[in-house]
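Two folds, back to back.
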Amino acid sequence: MLTLGSLSASLFAQQTPTPPVAPAPRATLTADQATNVLKQLAELERTILQQRGTNLGSVIQKLRTAASSDAAAISFIEDCDKLVNVERKDADREEARKIEQKAELAKRNETKKDEDKEGDQAMALRMSLEYLALSLEANDAKDLSVMVPKVQAFHQAMISYGKKLHGQAGEMLMRPISGGGGGGRRGGPAMDVRVVIDAYQLDRYLRREGWPMEPGNIIRMYQQVILKPSLEKHKDDIATIWDSAINAEASFRKERLPEGEFAIWQQNEYPALRWMRAVDLAASGSNPVNGMAEMLKVIKDHPGHPSSPEWIKQLRQLVAPSLPDPAAAPVAP
């Protein structure tokens, strides 16, 4: 019994939870001490933001200088590549020679034959550098609406160069400019703007929520930046802004895609964009009835679209939400 009692006491002791350790008492400051610390923090914040703005401003200026010509863009990428893959890695002269050959190849590829096949990749590189500069500006903008005129000017430039931005050149603009890093990929693209991000350690400045990272993604830019304020506050502008978005996207696609591929885009993607416009008008416009009328028109205009059955379900749910879905009703035997 003594042995069992001892064992029971031992088990009970093991099962008893250890009392939590009391947290260390929070340091308290006097009113004068708190005021002094807050004052120092405010001064430090001003200094840090000023220094950061100066540093980023310098980088933005370098990017725009590099984007001013083909030769400047290629040389800038070459310098960044050497910094990332030679100087920082203590690589030998052979590695530097490979980078020089890659830059030289990029320059030689700007022949008429190469441009006809894969587009003007140097121009695409320059557009990517300009978009990187815009993205750095957007990172520090208190309100992204201030970027709208600059973004629209960028879109117009892309459209004006559209005939040169087909093939690989166009694909370059549809890839994110950040993510994955640009260093150390000898088998990668001849010229990659992401090596600039590695060279200048810019990744932490390219995480602005709501800012698209693909230079050529016009629709996403409109949805996330240009259209968003109107959905919330300026409902009468939604239709006009959507029209501008669709027209810009269509113009860019028409310029950079072969005729057959553009025809497929018109058949599949263009009706989907019109539907998105109509849904926004119904959900957020000043007159939801007009939005539903637009939804009906899209279905009538494109009955053969793969999404048309789903569109009918969505519109029916808006018009009569209490009615059951006929497609879901059991079939009579």
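---
second:
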Amino acid sequence: MEPTLTQNCALYYAQHTTSEGRIALFRRFRVAARKRAPATHRHLTNYELFRRLPLHRDNGR
């Protein structure tokens, strides 16, 4: 059974407005990402990567 013209229009409208909203959302994310300061990454040494942590950390009391 074929959908009516009204149903076709409603389906087309629903699909295209959803994608336009999604595009606008990602566009806002892109603009926000540009405004953020660039992340500075520091390479960890082998000691920092593989050091053993103490069993009981001193909490300063």
